[in-house]
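Co-fold these.
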Amino acid sequence: MPESLLAVLDALPYLLEGSFITLVVVLGAMGFGFCLAVPLAVAQVYGPRWLRPLVALYVWFFRGIPLLVFLFLFYFGLCTALDINLSAFTVAVVVLGLISAAYQSQIFRGAIMSLPEGQLKAARALGMSDAKAILFIILPQALRLSIPGWSNEYSIILKDSAVTYALGVAEIMARTHFVATRTYQHMPLYAAAGAIFLVLTWLGIRGLRYLEEKVRIPGYSHHEF
Amino acid sequence: MEEPILKVEGIKKRYGKKEILRGTSLSIRRGELKILIGPSGAGKSTLLQCINFLVRPDAGRVWLEGKEIHHAQGRELHHYRQQVGMIFQDFNLFDHLTALRNVEIALVKVRRMSRNEAHDRAMAELERVGLGDHVQKYPAQLSGGQKQRVSIARALAMDPKVMLLDEPTSALDPELIGEVLAVIRDLGELGMTMLMATHQIAFAQALANEIVFMEDGLIVEAGPPEKIFGCAENERTREFCSKVMELYTDNR
Amino acid sequence: MEEWLYIQNEAAPALFRGFWVSVQLIIPSATLGLLLGILVGILRVFGNRAVSAAANLYVTLFRGIPLIVQLFVWYFGLPYWNIYLTPFTAAILGFSLCSAAYHSEYIRGALLSIKRGQMLAAHSLGFTRTQTIFSVILPQAMRRALPGCGNEIIYLIKYSSLAYMITCIELTGEGKILASDSFKFTEVFLLVGACYLVMTTLATLLLQALEARLRLPGFEHRSF
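Predicted complex below.
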């Protein structure tokens, strides 16, 4: 067997462990981002007038600066300045989550705004408070419509998670580079890492498509927005 | 004379420069079926939506059973809206819920009924509008006429004291109009108080207690159908009525 | 006062130097990426089966693999085959190739959205296939692809920070060095962030102006 293949096979278990960490980072960030993004989107569409520009400001800020800069800012800067001791892993999840919240909020916002106005009106006409109408009528529909956008967001965060290597998070990329510098089998190992990312992307998109099918409303064609 | 169940006075609404309602007042007594007619853009729909504050009037007062709705917000507003059923032109069924859940949801979330109680009530209402066999279907799987009947069942389940119907048949294919009108007619016979905007002149003529003709945000004339369709006082009323009667006979 | 002096005397010159390197990375990469993206998009739609399959494979790979892995391949990987690139060249190569894959997605969608009648009309006037693509289809498609491609360029501005990871010292790299020397991480990275915000905001405004400028009456920029 050629040396390159051997090196890849040797490293494979180590890299797969890394993909577990990658997935935890990605899912953690998406979950955290989701929890932030839903209130952000609701605030931007239904919130008081003074709140809407603040949400827009949040989105502008977190979409306008590179991930790497945020990672450095939070890990080396804010954590030290505020004297909080967070692991690189935690910072990675938080930063990816904060950025993802900005993007996800815009996915949800688009979905909410694509719903016919009558849905909210009908809920109000039945005596629902706006909070109930949003929770029981608007969000269940908007979140369904958001799944394709989510699938896109997943593949972006998955790839972005490789940047957390810069803080030393032991995900796929960090492990690949670590092995490569020892074995000098850079090309085969990077190819392996690339393949792992492709598989993870494919799996995630598959999973979300399954979810979309699972929660699809019968007879309802999901229009683009 | 009996006190009106619902009374509105001096409702005004403007969008930018355009005045949609210019101080409209009307009242409706228990068990009455009052029908609003008038050209599109007359403000019928805005008036109905102002009555339960889905559109916020710029001015005007509203009474339900003699009690004025002072602060149309928060608890008081939600409580008031529960007592005023609303039927929309384009149904506005909740697209992510089955027919049954559409009727149940407000019972459970707003009236805090138990799931079982709500289920039984919703089933009864859906059977009443002739949809007992379609309760598990989603809105997208129902015809327009069925959707409108679900939305009527949804409103009825809240035990409204009065129903507002905003052109309930105008989004329907002609062959589906009859089934919805039949449901509304039955409701009227059971004594439901209704204020309905419609272009269904024959229905109005046969069943309304009073016809209200609106134009340019004002009520021009009101009276029993014989009078409005037979010998209206106002020139504009006569003109409109003769036009729609002509249309109506043509369609036959 | 001390802060201000630090910014004026040390931070500003270094960050400006880095900013300039970033600009030198972004402009050629954006240009090359867009041109290559247009080419790949055309090949995917109008190429024969083999060509469009190859183009699709390229796009799948370059969109599916993280940019940072791609950069490492060009910089640390190619020496495996005795090809040595400077960090700067490797960065531009990596950015252009990755960006092109994304651009081609938008271009492809836009090309497919142009009505078939346009092609038939041009053929009936005696245009060749290539002439039709370049003088009839593409000018329309580019207008539809512009919002997506514009977004991709904004992404590129942000991802240019990854050049630092392959030792090409641009804005982020200068920031890192500066901060490590002075331990003023928060201040320095906020400044660096502000520079990127200026770049992304400016680019957004420019692209919006361009879109408005190229808008044709009645030709809708519908999404697809």
